[in-house]
Design goal:
- The chain has a 7-stranded mixed sheet, sandwiched between helices. A 3-stranded antiparallel sheet has the order 9-10-12.
- The protein contains 14 helices and 12 strands.
- It is globular, with a radius of gyration of 21 Å.
- The relative contact order is 0.17.
- It is α/β, with parallel strands linked by helices.
- The longest helix is centred in the N-terminal third of the chain and has 20 residues, at 37-56.
């Protein structure tokens, strides 16, 4: 039976050229901090990867901190940028990824910070006025995503950056879902810290990066050695970093494929609406790769399971929340008075590997599943 993978917002298939580069790399195991020949060889591969990551976002290699993935990059960007000597105020949104929300919640529980969470009604990004109003003389960080992981909603980061810059508040941006879908140059986006992840752009899981503006005094949040210029302790995974670097060198191809992907997404979305589905955040600006749809009276977990049996891999939300019985926090944040909507939504996320015939196969599978009576 054929299978179609439509969960690219959770993880992308590893690009064949990344696989080939890792195969050609051979056995790289030495610690890149060691000064002997084996260590220098590992260091060379690591620094080449850093340069590729930096080039893909228009940054200097020295401003890139290599991490173990997007979650670590988000944690480091938030925890490492906040002051430790006073209770700080932080502005974020209701629909951030758990990699952003959880470190903030932990600090809030400890009494270290106070948080203002901007509303995102029906997927509408917070306005510049709403952000400006939320800032106070005690605000020490603004943490906002570029692209929402469940609905694809695009936040106007450039406009937010101008507000934060005027208020002298550092802006951390979770760019893990926007990278590879939208053109990205750190100078144009205007953020002060930017998190990236390899497995969203055809790299292997276990690698990520944090770009840090030189205006930010970033502290390491892991106690250990002085790796990454003292900003991130721990021996890096050189192979994962090499794969990330290669994936970054190919990111322009991903951006170029977005119009074709958008055509497939729009076609599937129209069919799903004809089958009774309603698009979440459908009126907000979105990337081309995702359609988040809900069916009144249906349970998202049942729909995901039924489609999996039919040969279609989709999800009910963020992969890091899989196995939890709670409704989607993102959809609930967008529609706070509609809990059933959050319990009945399915995310269909595309990648450049998806073909027209595969999209048609998904349409047929959805029609069969939705034709069955509700259990």
């Amino acid at each position: 039976m054929p299978r179609v993978y439509l969960d690219h917002h959770a993880a992308t298939p590893v690009d064949p050229r990344v696989q080939a580069a890792l195969s050609a790399l051979g056995d790289v195991w030495a610690n890149p901090s060691s000064v002997h020949g084996e260590g220098r060889r590992s260091r060379g591969h690591l620094e080449r990867a850093r340069e590729q990551v930096a080039a893909s976002v228009g940054a200097a290699a020295s401003d890139i901190v290599l991490t173990s993935g997007g979650t670590e990059a988000c944690n480091l960007g938030i925890l490492g940028a906040l002051p430790h000597d006073a209770v700080a105020h932080v502005v974020t949104s209701e629909i951030e990824h758990p990699a952003v929300l959880e470190p903030l919640r932990q600090l809030e529980r400890l009494g270290r910070i106070q948080i203002t969470r901007l509303a995102v009604p029906e997927g509408r990004p917070p306005s510049v006025h709403e952000l400006r109003t939320a800032l106070t003389p005690h605000t020490r960080l603004c943490a906002l995503q570029w692209v929402n992981h469940e609905t694809g909603t695009i936040f106007p980061i450039e406009a937010y950056a101008a507000v934060c810059r005027a208020a002298q508040v550092p802006l951390f941006v979770d760019a893990t879902q926007g990278f590879g879908k939208l053109p990205l140059a750190v100078s144009g986006l205007g953020a002060d810290l930017l998190a990236l992840a390899a497995h969203k752009i055809g790299g292997v899981a276990g690698a990520g990066a944090l770009w840090v503006s030189r205006a930010v005094d970033l502290r390491s949040v892991a106690l250990g050695g002085g790796q990454e210029r003292g900003r991130r302790a721990g021996t890096p995974d050189v192979r994962a970093a090499v794969g990330f670097g290669v994936a970054c060198s190919l990111v322009a191809e991903r951006i170029a494929s977005q119009p074709r992907i958008g055509t497939l997404r729009d076609r599937l979305e129209a069919r799903l609406q004809s089958l009774g589905g309603r698009v979440n955040a459908g009126q907000s600006p979105r990337v081309a790769t995702v359609s988040n749809v809900y069916w009144p009276g249906r349970r998202s977990d049942a729909l995901v399971a039924a489609l999996d049996i039919e040969g279609v891999a989709v999800s009910a939300g963020a992969a890091c929340s899989s196995g939890k019985s709670e409704p989607s926090a993102v959809i609930l944040g967008m529609y706070p008075s509609e809990k059933p909507r959050a319990e009945s939504s399915v995310r269909f996320s595309f990648g450049r590997e998806v073909s027209e015939s595969e999209e048609e196969f998904v349409e047929d599978c959805c029609q069969r599943v939705l034709a069955r009576p509700v259990a």
